[in-house]
C-alpha cells in the first residue's frame, strides 16, 4: 500500500526489489453526492451548531480507537478557546475510546462531537473546513503506511495536519500539502492550524495541491487501471 511497506517486505524477504514489485494504494471510488444532498447535510450541521457559511474549522473523520492520540489537538483547541478564536474542531466518529476522547475535550466550547456521519455530511463539512486532522500515534504500522483517512483528505482537497512521521510526513512535506506536527518549536498542532487560519493564500494553495496529488497518485480509476495492466503484464511474461 505504500513505499514504506514495499521496502519492509523486501527486507523481510531478503531480496532486492524488481520492476514486478509495485505500490498499490488503498483507495476507493469517490461517492457521487448531489447538490440536494449537500443542502440537506448543511441543514443537519446547522442544527448541531456547525454553520457552514464560513471556513474557520478543522475536521476529523474516523473510528475512536487506540491508534489516535488527541492530546495535541486538545491543547490547540484549548489555547484557541482561551484566545477567543472562532475556529471549530469538529470531531466525527464513534468507537471504543469515544468516552475518553470526549472527556479529554470536556469544557471546550469550540469542540463539536456530532457522532458518525454519512458521505453527504462528510462532503459538506469538508467543503467548509480548512484542514483534516490526522492525529495518529507513531506505531510502525502507520509510520510505514498511507492510511485511508489521509487519502480521503486529499480527495476532499483538505490540507493534512498530522503527528505521523515516516511515509505520511515525507509526502506532506515533499508535496507541501499540510503540516507534520513534531516536538520541534513551532511545529505543533496550534501553530499549524493557526497558520492555515491566518494565511488564506497558503491554505488555498495547499488545498489545490492536495486534490492534484490525489488525482495523480490515488484516484481509484488510475490505481485500479495500473494494477490491472501490471497483472496482465505479469501473466504475459510468466514466472
How would you describe this protein?
With 239 residues, the chain is an alpha/beta fold. The chain has one domain: Glycogen Phosphorylase B (Rossmann fold), CATH 3.40.50.2000. It is built from 11 helices and 6 strands. The protein has helices at 3-13, 35-47, 71-83, 98-104, 119-127, 140-143, 148-155, 166-175, 189-198, 200-218, 220-237; strands at residues 57-63, 88-94, 111-115, 131-134, 160-162, 178-180. It has a 6-stranded parallel beta sheet with strand order 3-2-1-4-5-6, sandwiched between helices. Strand 2, helix 4 (98-104) and strand 3 (111-115) form a beta-alpha-beta unit. Helix 2 (35-47) crosses helix 5. The longest helix has 19 residues, at 200-218. The chain starts with a helix and ends with a helix. The model has no long low-confidence stretch (mean pLDDT 94).
Give the structure's gist in a few sentences.
By secondary structure, the chain is of the alpha/beta class.
Proportion in helices? 40-55%
Judged by helices, strands and strand pairing, the structural class is alpha/beta
Enumerate the strands of the largest sheet in spatial order, edge to edge or round the barrel. 3-2-1-4-5-6
The radius of gyration computed from the alpha-carbon positions, rounded to a whole number of angstroms, is 19 Å
Q: What is the tally of beta strands?
A: 6
Low-confidence stretches: none
Task: Report the sheet-strand fraction.
Answer: 5-15%
Biggest β-sheet, characterized?
A: 6 strands, parallel
Topology:
Layout: H1 3-13, H2 35-47, E1 57-63, H3 71-83, E2 88-94, H4 98-104, E3 111-115, H5 119-127, E4 131-134, H6 140-143, H7 148-155, E5 160-162, H8 166-175, E6 178-180, H9 189-198, H10 200-218, H11 220-237
Parallel strand pairs: 1-2, 1-4, 2-3, 4-5, 5-6
Helix pairs in contact: 2-5, 3-9, 7-10
